[in-house]
Amino acid sequence: MLEPSLLVLASLAKSDRHGYAIMQDVEEFAGVRLGPGTLYGAITRLEERGWIKPLATDDRRVPYRLTAEGRKHLEEEMALLGRIAKAGLRRLKRA
Amino acid sequence: MKKLLHVLIRFYPRSWRDRYEAELSALLDQSPPQPAHAFDLLKGALTMQIRRGNIALTPLAFGLAGAALTVAALSLIPRPFESRAVVSVRTTGNLAADTLIQSTLTSAELRRMVDEFHLYPGNSDPVEKLRDSISTAPLYRGGANAFELKVRDSDPVLARTLTRDLVARVIDGNIRRRMAEIEEEARRTGQPPAPLERKGQTVELMSPATLPTMPLGPNRAVSLGILAASFAESLQLGLIFVLLRRKAGYTPQQ
Which ipTM score applies to this complex? Predict the structure, then answer.
């Protein structure tokens, strides 16, 4: 249910990764299988917004790094998700 | 499969491919190919075409996506197996051969088949379903009136069993009918009954029921028609989408 862009940002928060490594990492930590089209759609949007940047490489596999703006955006989104999760759990306990 | 996935990258806009094609291609080389990836790439290509506002390619991408979804939907339709048998009908009476076969397929006879083989449990009208799965087609072999009897079922063995049973019922029904006619004539004329072979029609089995090994293919003309229609409709939808976005002042990202 989580936005693919958010999953990619969360994956890059730990270390720089190329597309396939992001796919594997997201499946490992979130249990979500990102398809190649979905992954590259998210990478395109994130790069356009300046939240990730490609690193120079001779390899066909281009690694990406989270930018300061990207980190800030991820922190805001995670804080929001945390508030939603807290409120949801509180309401579930009451019900 | 891998080759198909690489071909699908070509549906992305050129400007996007200039930037990402090499790395997406490397990712496809590295990851195990899955059929779901084909749809994911098509969806991704369509999204990118729309985002980049390509007036020529967006409707085409819509059209291709519509056609791909239609192919997927058509492939999900279960295809039955069809067993065939050929019977010849030599007639000296006025009863046409097809009428002879059709007269065997009475609701009572089909009901007996349904009960005997426990067909279509849970179906509200199993007799009608059985009637729909039976078809006949005239053939002409060796000067005799020959008919092909065909029965369709999802189980090939059951299709053959039903075809065999149907042939037996057609032959038995014909003998019973002829006997009744002879007895009726004897009663009417007061003469002794005529020998069976001199009266009415003779139904003989020419080719026994086959065991189908492959399910029936989709009707090519109908499938192509549906595919063309879905492509055209999706193309129109794509064009309307692009025009509406342009009217709303959308600026494509290049």
Answer: 0.87
